[in-house]
Design goal:
- The protein has one domain: 3-Layer(aba) Sandwich (Aminopeptidase), CATH 3.40.630.
- It is globular and about 55 Å long.
- The protein has an 8-stranded mixed β-sheet, with helices on both faces. The protein has a two-stranded antiparallel ribbon with strand order 4-5.
- The protein has helices at about 15-25, 45-50, 55-65, 75-90, 160-185, 205-210, 250, 255-270, 290-295, 325-345, and strands spanning about 105-110, 125-130, 135-145, 150-155, 155, 190-195, 220-225, 245, 270-275, 300-305.
- Residues about 10-35 have low confidence and may be disordered.
- It has 10 helices and 10 strands.
- It starts with 14 loop residues before the first helix and ends in a 10-residue tail after the last helix.
- The longest helix is centred in the middle third of the chain and has 23 residues, at about 160-185.
- By secondary structure, it is of the alpha/beta class.
- Helix 3 (about 55-65) crosses helix 10 (about 325-345).
- The structure holds zinc ion.
- The site of zinc ion has 5 residues, from loops.
Length: about 350
C-alpha cells in the first residue's frame, strides 16, 4: 500500500467537492446487498484449497521479510534477492513464465518510474509466472501483489512483512494450489497470470508499466485480484481477525462483487467489509494499490486489504507480528475466488464502465 496519492488520482483535485458530497453519502453507507443469483459455484476448489496452509505462508514470509532482504526497496539488492527467491519458488513448483517471454522478468526502466513524486530508482523487475488454461486459455485472470517495500532508514530494516510480504506469499501459495491442481490433471479453463510488481511504494509504477505494456491483451484480461496487506488486524478490529476489506469489486463489475460474496457465503465465512469501498472514503485506498492500474483500463478489479495499523510503514512491520492462521484463511478465500473466475462458464463482464 502506497502512502502516495498518485498523480493520476482523479479525485486529487476534487477533494473539497468530495468532502461535501460525502455528507449525503453517509446515510447510504449500508452493507451491499447480495442477490439470489448464482453463477454456478465451482466446488472443485475444495480439493486444492488444503494446499494453502499457515506453515508454508510462514516459511515464505520469514524469508521475504528477513533483515537480509533490506526492506526490498525498488532497484536495490534486497528487492533483487526477494525477486530471486520468488522465481526459484516458481521453478520448484513447475510454473513457467509466459511462453512469449524469455524469462520471468519484465524489466521496468528507471526512466519510467520517474514522476514528480518519485526519487530516481534503478531499473527493477516485475515477475510474471503463468499457467495456461484449457478451452478458454485466451482469457486471463491476473493475481497481483507488489513485492517491494520502503527499504532501510537510519540503519533500520523496514521489513514490510504485512506490506506486502503477506500479499507476496499469499500469491505464492495460491500458485502452489493451482500447480497441484494442474499436476492432478485439473488445469483451469482460463489462464492465470501470477504478477509480482515492483515500485508500488513509490507510486504504483510496476503495475502501471504492466498495464501500459501488457504481455497479454487487456481486452482478454478479465480481472485483477490484487492482494496488498492481508496478514494483520487493523486498529478497528483489534483482536478479531475474521474479516477482510474489499475494495473496488463493484465499481466496474456487479458480477465480480456478487461472485466474491457467494464464494464467501458458501466457503470462507469472512466478514467482507466495504467501508473503504465507499466513494467518499477519505483514505482513497481505491487509488493506492496496484489494482487501480487495471481498473483505470476498464478491467474489473478487486482489492483485498486488512487496513492499517501502528506498524504500517514503520520498522515494526515484522514477520513475528503476522497472524498466520488468519493469513491462511484469507488466502484460501482469494484462491477460491480465482478458481471460480478461471473455471466458470461465462467470463465476468464490466457492466458498470
Ligand atoms: Zn506500503
Amino acid at each position: 500500500m502506497t502512502l502516495i496519492f498518485t498523480d493520476f488520482n482523479p479525485l486529487y483535485m476534487k477533494k473539497l467537492s468530495i468532502l461535501l458530497l460525502s455528507l449525503s453519502f453517509i446515510a447510504c453507507k449500508t452493507a451491499q446487498k447480495t442477490q439470489n443469483t448464482t453463477f454456478g459455484i465451482d466446488e472443485t476448489s475444495v480439493t486444492y484449497t488444503q494446499y494453502i496452509n499457515e506453515n508454508d505462508l510462514k516459511k515464505h514470509l520469514y524469508i521475504i521479510a528477513a533483515d537480509s532482504m533490506q526492506g526490498r526497496n525498488t532497484g536495490e539488492i534486497g528487492q533483487q534477492k526477494a525477486r530471486d527467491y520468488i522465481v526459484t519458488y516458481y521453478k520448484s513448483i513447475g510454473i513457467a513464465p509466459p511462453k512469449t517471454m524469455q524469462s520471468y522478468f519484465q524489466q521496468v526502466p528507471s526512466a519510467f518510474m520517474k514522476s514528480r513524486f518519485s526519487p530516481k530508482l534503478n531499473d527493477a523487475d516485475n515477475i510474471l509466472a503463468f499457467i495456461e488454461g484449457t478451452d478458454k486459455k485466451d482469457e486471463i485472470i491476473v493475481i497481483s501483489a507488489h513485492y517491494d517495500h520502503v527499504g532501510m532508514k537510519n540503519g533500520e530494516v523496514y521489513n514490510g512483512a504485512d506490506d506486502n510480504g503477506s500479499g507476496t506469499v499469499a500469491v505464492l501459495e495460491i500458485a502452489e494450489a493451482f500447480a497441484k491442481a494442474v499436476k492432478m490433471g485439473h488445469k483451469p479453463r482460463r489462464s492465470v497470470l501470477f504478477l509480482h510488481v515492483i515500485g508500488e511504494e513509490h507510486g504504483l509504477h510496476g503495475s502501471r508499466y504492466y498495464a501500459e505494456n501488457p504481455v497479454f491483451p487487456l481486452a482478454n484480461t478479465i480481472v485483477d485480484i490484487n492482494i496488498d496487506m492481508v496478514g494483520r488486524i487493523d486498529d478497528v478490529y483489534k483482536t478479531e481477525g475474521n474479516y477482510i476489506y474489499v475494495i473496488g469489486a463493484d465499481r466496474l463489475s456487479s458480477e465480480l462483487h456478487q461472485i466474491n460474496e457467494e464464494i464467501n457465503t458458501k466457503f470462507s465465512n469472512l466478514k467482507l467489509d466495504y467501508t473503504y469501498n465507499d466513494v467518499s472514503d477519505p483514505n482513497e485506498y481505491y487509488y493506492r494499490s496496484d489494482h487501480y492500474n487495471f481498473a483505470k483500463k476498464g478491467i474489473p478489479s478487486i482489492f483485498f486489504f486488512n487496513g492499517v495499523h501502528a506498524d504500517y510503514h514503520q520498522e515494526g512491520d515484522e514477520p513475528q507480528k503476522i497472524l498466520y492462521p488468519i493469513l491462511a484463511k484469507r488466502t484460501q478465500h482469494f484462491f477460491r475466488l480465482a478458481w471460480q473466475l478461471a473455471n466458470q462458464e461465462k467470463r465476468i463482464v464490466a457492466d458498470k464502465k
